[in-house]
Write a structure and sequence with these properties.
Helices cover about 35% and strands about 20% of the residues.
Length: about 270
Amino acid sequence: MPIRSPRAGRLDLRQPFLRCEALAAGLTDLALSGPAFRQLFWGVHVSASVPHSFALRCQAALLVAPSPAVLTHHTAAALWEATVPESPTIHVGIPVGARLRAEGITTHRYVVMPPSVVRGGLGISAHERTFCDLAALLTLVDLVVLGDSLVAQQVTTPQRLVEASVDASGRGARLARRAARLVRAGVESPMETRVRLLFVLAGLPEPVVNLAVRDETGRTVYRIDLSFPDLRLAIEYDGRHHVVREHQWRKDLTRREELEGDGWRF
């Protein structure tokens, strides 16, 4: 059963609510099981007219969790709009000794609850802590992709991730420290990270990220995803839209011809 006590005030059926709150408001189990309502987790319902959404599931998970609780791991990363492998469950952090068992929720227990912030009305673990927590579950490459995307969202910096990883302990701490040292600012896509790591993990020199190519006035005219400026060698990963959209294709072709005319090789 949900652990939280019923909340005072009028029941808002368009927000997740507990079964006990519904019964106290005069609804019945028969009504809750009918077409007018949808069960999000065991004992947590919402009006069937409310569209499905990730945020709604997160809100429901926190409602059924014992207090204090925060959203962590994959769920927190997704709410930070960072790039992380999909998870079929909502990840919730609770104190050691607290109980939470619900299908669709993965529970993580903390001796000391992680630093958290409120984002979109939801309590989620802080960016650096989310990165370090996920080091226990992700591969090195996926963790660097996560770090690069967190930096791209301007919610943290490579240096802050390095500092947080130094203080990390337990499972994944060593991987967190290694990955944090590979996080870079200015990365614009997960595939840029993956291509960069193909060089780094093969033992080759690390390419420069998003090099600005300037004209004689100092104005930036082009950016190159990855490059070795001394060799005038450019490495880029282009998505399908670079081929199927004629305007983009012509723009890319002109850009490449001009850079190659200036001595660059792609």
